[in-house]
Specification:
About 30% of the residues lie in helices and about 20% in strands. The protein is an alpha/beta fold and about 450 residues long. The chain folds into three domains: about 120 residues, Response regulator (Rossmann fold); about 230 residues, tm_1862 like domain (pyruvate-formate lyase- activating enzyme, Alpha-Beta Horseshoe), CATH 3.80.30; about 70 residues.
C-alpha cells in the first residue's frame, strides 16, 4: 500500500498540544482509537474524545452504512468549523470504501487508509511535534478499555463491506492480548472489552491456537487479574457448551452480543449467513441455560433486498420471542462492492422505515422488560463517570456486568469503583440505584409510570 508522503515539520509549525480523537462505529474502532490516543498521550499531547477546539483531530471513521459515511463527512466539517487551523487526519473504513483521493476531498489534511491506522499517531507527530508534557486528557482515563484481539473476516456476507475495508482474518497471539490487558491493569482499568471483527473466528488463521476463542479466554483468566472481562461479538455457530462453560468464572461478564441480522431463514440464506433461525434459537437457549441473568444483545437488519411482508413479520416475531436485552436495529444500506448491492427487489424507503419502527418497538419493550427483572436486586456496578453535575449532588453513570446501565446521585467520587448497588427505579435507558448509605434516586416509578432521566449521554455498545 502506498501512503501519501508526510512532509517534516518546520520551525513555523505550531506545536501540538490538544488532539481530539473522534470515533465512529464498532468496538474494534474504539480499541484502535484508544491505541492511537495512548501513543499521542505518551508523546506529550493532551488527548480528548469529544469534538472541542483542538490543535489536531483524528477521525476514525466507519463505513458500514451510508449513514456512517455521512457522519464521517460531518465530523470533518465540524472539526474545520471548531478549529480552522487544526490538522485534520481521517482514517478508518471510509477511506477504504471511497478511496484516498475521495476521502481527502472531504476536507482532511491527511488521509490514512484503515489498514495503515497503526501509523496515524506517528504521522501526525511527524507533521506537528508536541509542545511537551501535558495533563492526561479525558480519553486517556478509561474505566473500561477496548483491546483488539482479531481483525478481518473471511465470511463475505452479502450485505457487508467489512471484508473489503478490513481484509482477511488476522488474529493476535494470546500473549499479545494478555500483555495489552496487563498494561491496562497496571493503569487501574477495571474492565477490558475484547474486540474483533469476527471474534468467533479467533485463531482460524493460525495453526497454534486449537479451539480458538476458548484458548484466548483461558489465557486471560489464568494470566491476568483484571476484575471484568467482556468478550465481545460472537455468532450462533460459535456457541458450544464447552465455550459457554468458561462463563462459570465470575470475571467473565454475563453478556453475549450474538448477531442475528434476520429471524427469517429465507432472508438469512440470501444474506449468506451461516446459521438458521432454529440454530440461533438453540444457541440462545444454551447461553441462557448455562449463564443465569445473562444479557444477550443483537444486531438486526430490516428491509434487506427482496424482503417480503411475510419475511419481515417472521423476523419481527422471532425478535419478540427472543426477548433481547438490547437490539441495534439498522435499515438495510446499499454498499457498492457487495453482493446485495446488485440484488433485485430493493425495499422502498417508506416501507423500510415502517418496518424499522415496528422492530424498534419490539426492541424498546424487550429492553425495558429485561431491566425490570433486576428491580429490587443488588448487583455490582462499575461506575464510569459523571453524566450530570447540576443540583445538590452529581449524577453518576455505571454498568453492571450484564449490561444494565445504572445511575445514582452521590457527592463521593465513584469513578472506576465496582460497588454493590440496590436497583430501585427505572430511568429512560437504565435503572436508578442506591449505594450503601441510602443515596436517593433522582426518579421513581409513580403509579406505574416512569419519570424519565432529564439528561441522557451517549454510550458505547461494548
Amino acid at each position: 500500500m502506498t501512503l501519501p508522503d508526510v512532509s517534516p515539520a518546520t520551525a513555523q509549525t505550531p506545536a501540538l498540544r490538544t488532539v481530539a480523537v473522534l470515533t465512529l462505529g464498532c468496538k474494534l474502532n474504539q480499541a484502535e482509537s484508544e491505541a492511537i490516543a495512548r501513543e499521542l498521550a505518551r508523546a506529550g499531547c493532551r488527548v480528548v474524545d469529544r469534538p472541542v477546539q483542538a490543535d489536531a483531530y483524528v477521525i476514525n471513521s466507519c463505513s458500514v452504512t451510508h449513514v456512517a459515511d455521512r457522519k464521517t463527512r460531518h465530523l470533518v466539517r465540524l472539526a474545520r468549523r471548531l478549529s480552522p487551523a487544526a490538522t485534520v487526519v481521517l482514517t478508518g473504513c471510509y477511506p477504504e470504501t471511497v478511496g484516498v483521493e475521495a476521502a481527502r476531498a472531504v476536507g482532511a489534511d491527511l488521509v490514512v487508509p484503515g489498514r495503515a491506522k497503526h501509523t496515524v499517531a506517528g504521522r501526525l507527530l511527524a507533521l506537528r511535534p508536541p509542545a511537551g508534557p501535558a495533563p492526561q486528557g479525558e480519553g486517556a482515563r478509561r474505566t473500561r478499555a477496548f483491546i483488539k484481539a482479531q481483525e478481518g473476516c473471511n465470511d463475505v456476507c452479502a450485505f457487508c463491506i467489512v471484508p473489503r475495508t478490513r481484509g482477511r482474518e488476522r488474529s493476535l497471539s494470546p500473549a499479545a492480548v494478555v500483555a495489552a490487558v496487563r498494561e491496562r491493569e497496571e493503569e487501574g482499568v477495571q474492565e477490558v472489552v475484547i474486540t474483533g471483527t469476527q471474534l468467533g473466528a479467533y485463531g482460524r488463521d493460525r495453526n497454534d491456537l486449537g479451539d480458538g476463542p476458548a484458548v484466548l479466554i483461558r489465557a486471560l483468566l489464568e494470566e491476568t487479574s483484571v476484575p471484568r472481562i467482556r468478550f465481545s461479538s460472537l455468532q450462533p455457530q460459535d456457541i458450544t457448551p464447552e465455550l459457554v462453560a468458561l462463563w462459570e468464572d465470575p470475571r467473565l461478564c454475563r453478556h453475549f452480543h450474538l448477531a442475528l441480522q434476520s429471524g427469517c431463514d429465507s432472508v438469512l440464506q440470501r444474506m449468506r449467513r451461516r446459521y438458521t433461525a432454529a440454530q440461533y434459537r438453540h444457541a440462545l437457549a444454551l447461553i441462557r441455560e448455562m449463564v443465569p441473568d445473562v444479557a444477550v444483545t443483537t444486531d438486526v437488519i430490516v428491509g434487506f433486498p427482496g424482503e417480503t411482508e411475510e419475511e419481515a413479520a417472521a423476523s419481527l416475531a422471532f425478535c419478540r420471542e427472543a426477548e433481547f436485552a438490547l437490539m441495534h436495529v439498522f435499515p438495510y444500506s446499499r454498499r457498492p462492492g457487495t453482493l446485495a448491492h446488485r440484488m433485485d427487489g430493493h425495499v422502498p424507503e417508506p416501507i423500510k422505515r415502517a418496518r424499522v419502527e415496528a422492530m424498534l418497538q419490539v426492541a424498546r419493550a424487550s429492553a425495558t422488560a429485561f431491566r425490570r427483572r433486576f428491580l429490587g436486586r443488588t448487583l455490582p456496578v462499575l461506575w464510569e463517570g459523571l453524566t450530570r453535575a447540576a443540583g445538590a449532588e452529581p449524577v453518576w453513570e455505571g454498568l453492571t456486568d450484564n449490561y444494565v446501565r445504572v445511575y445514582t446521585r452521590s457527592a463521593a467520587d465513584l469513578r472506576n469503583r465496582i460497588l454493590a448497588v440496590r436497583l430501585v427505579a427505572e430511568a429512560e435507558d437504565g435503572l436508578w440505584g442506591e449505594l450503601d448509605g441510602g443515596v436517593e434516586p433522582a426518579v421513581r416509578r409513580v403509579e406505574g409510570e416512569t419519570i424519565p432521566l432529564e439528561v441522557r449521554t451517549a454510550s458505547d455498545h461494548g
